[in-house]
């Protein structure tokens, strides 16, 4: 079992990335935390051919090598963050997500008006284009605040950790 973890945030102290680091810490199987979001070039269909930019090649290789993918992305200005949408655009030309089990965790704060619903509606739409298999029971909204993160960058709030564990277990059970 190999799970790819992709954060839609480029923020250094991102709660989304902290959730995925925590998932990596909890996992009893191989995980890879994707870390080149900021390095991807802007998507241009004219560049979606060999030779691909090295960062795009690595992205597609990681997607292809994974048995499943777990996303955690914020909503920005009512949609997916541009850098994360760019990553998704680069996956459209590959076949790595075809029928691959995917899920997401939303950690918008309790005060967030839509709880990230618009971003996840957009994510759902894009994942449909790449023919990914959304594992609905593994997708979750687990509101948290920055105070839920320890100085080591992991989530410490018990309820949030339990929610992350539930998502991991549910997603990986689809592969058994």
Automatic annotation (TrEMBL):
Coiled coil: none annotated. One of its GO terms (cellular component) is cytosol. Residues 1-138 form the NADPH-dependent FMN reductase-like domain. Pfam families: FMN_red (PF03358). It comes from the Bacteria. One of its GO terms (molecular function) is oxidoreductase activity. This is NAD(P)H-dependent oxidoreductase.
